[in-house]
Amino acid sequence: MDTCCVSAAPRQIPLSVTHPLQPLTPDEIRAVATIVRKDPPYGADTRFETIELMEPDKATVRAFSSGAPIARKARVNVFSAAAVTVTSLVVCLDTQTILTRKDFPGKRPMIQLEQFLSIEGIVRTDPEFIAACAKRGITDMETVCVDPWSAGNFGVPGEEGRHLCHIFCWLRLRENENFYAHPIEGLNAVVDLITGKVIRVDDYGVVPVPMQEVNYESQFIETFQPTAKPIDVVQQEGVNFAFDGHRITWRNWSLVVGFNAREALTLHDIRFDGRPIVNRASIVEMTVPYGSPDNGHFRKNVFDIGEYGIGKLANSLKLGCDCLGVIKYLDVHLNTMDGDPWTIEKAICIHEEDSGLLWKHMDFRTERSEIRRGAKLVVSTICTVGNYEYGLYWYLFLDGTIEHEVKATGIINTAACIPGQPPKYGREVAPGVVGHIHQHILCARLDMAVDGDANSVVECNTYAEPLGPANPYGNAFFEQQTVLGRESEATRRADPASHRYWKVINPNKTNYTGAPVGYKLEANHCVTPFVHPDSPSGKRAAFVQNHVWVTAFDPEERFPAGDFVNHSDGAGGLIEFVAKNRPIENTDIVLWHVFGLHHPVRVEDFPVQPCVFTGFKLMPSGFFDRNPAINLPPVVNTASCPA
């Protein structure tokens, strides 16, 4: 049990806090900042990167009963506005004290949301940048749009020891029109986020700015398709899920929904019929490497989660547009650089959907049919990272399947070329407008708990039996299962030739056939990385070199590219975790799955890309004794049947 926060006069827990894993409330964020400000690590220069719940240990969560006291702690990252350094703190809200402090000189915080627009102002007023724009015939700097990209770590002279941002720019011809149709090619600036000044302007030469408008806002669309008849989602009897704070119960399922500035959605204590499956699930990194070495584009290798914090970029969702049906929304509460709470209303959407045919059989002799339709619980958020939108969806199904799906939409990042002469590293999507080939590679951290914490990972490969006495007709093939014993054995890549997959089993629990209960990772969206592993970007994103990693559970091993990703050198991530070579058999383990999108851009991806999809599933594999949805009652949807 967590007792380090117990005091003689404990703080009054807000009535809205009903579970140990519930994210911090605005009052708690404010209280944490007040505690830190009593002795700020950097005095008046102290700024807050993140204030988030310090999640209690598993034993504390499992021992919790409704109405019991809840100890509350917070993780806090603060940084200096005057130097390159970060300090990590653990704050006890009950005793109003700082429990631990670790200083990380030379490390950088995530780029803060408040800095985005200030970077644009800094660049627009720089004399050298203004002069470079004038060479291109651009004199009204208010029409120049600047996107702040992380700078990476490329050993460029003059960039050592700084906290930097590298920018790309476009031209907006009139109010609200799509400026990504007008890239200002070959012009970049590097901004020092400490001094607030441009330290260098890179001018690779003038390419004419494409001036044809390619718009997406409805005000610019002259002719619309005929209005379609609505497809309404109506649940006149209400929904099948219930809330207790952030804890949800739905049909056979229960879970706790969390959220933080870096990861966005986190799911906790996922259970089916009370049986644990996953202790914690989240997407912990996404790197987006672009394939062009031309001009400044070689620096495009952003880490959307570790360098920006995708949770801070969550949208406030709109009923009837982002979400359809009978919806339950949750607000999320984060912090500003000054430590004040700020709220994104309706950032999390929870609803249920029909998922189509679940199972069916017709006995052809009697023509008797049994049919069951499926349903799924949807927990989602949508985040805007500059030009791209990422819809992050978690689904729970009636057959025990858990699915994560990413819907990528928004506007492709654009460059310019001479019309009709696109470079080999991209495709022309409008006259003179290029979309470069790129990838979106994500990493899920799955703290597994299949019927308990003592789990193992089994790799499964299918092989053909060689022709011979054991296979005289050439039709024999079989599956071979291998238990991965140590971390060094569990750095694995997909192999379509053997239909390789992995499952997490509990060797101490068996189903009614006597086999260990388990869950299969259905990894259908593995990506081959093309960034060289020894390159600057390849070293920083070393986790992409494998599709599956397995580590012994450590609550401080949270991020595959390290805790501090801005300007990182590749240290502190999965490579170092697995170098410990700990045993991972019949113990508490974390399954890391790397997946994503390979994106050679299409013309149809512009001006706004239709959703493309990636993700993975966790499917029961011997977890149940039979189809867990076999006992669903037969129901006919009367609303679909005319009277």
From TrEMBL:
Q: What class of enzyme is it?
A: oxidoreductase
Positions of post-translational 2',4',5'-topaquinone modification: Y388
Give the superkingdom in one word.
Bacteria
- Enzyme Commission identifier(s): 1.4.3.-
Q: How is the cofactor bound?
A: Contains 1 topaquinone per subunit.
Annotated Copper amine oxidase N2-terminal domain residues: 19-99
User: Which biological process terms from the Gene Ontology are attached to this UniProt entry?
Assistant: amine metabolic process
Q: Which Gene3D superfamilies match?
A: 3.10.450.40, Copper amine oxidase, catalytic domain
Which positions, given as ranges, span the membrane?
A: none
Copper amine oxidase N3-terminal domain residues: 109-209
The active site of this protein is located at D304 (proton acceptor), Y388 (schiff-base intermediate with substrate)
Q: Which Pfam families match?
A: Cu_amine_oxid, Cu_amine_oxidN2, Cu_amine_oxidN3
Enumerate the spans annotated as Copper amine oxidase catalytic domain. Answer: 232-630
Q: Does the keyword Oxidoreductase apply?
A: yes
Which family does the record claim for this protein? Belongs to the copper/topaquinone oxidase family.
Know the name of this protein? Amine oxidase
**Phylogenetic placement of the source organism:** Bacteria, Pseudomonadati, Pseudomonadota, Alphaproteobacteria, Hyphomicrobiales
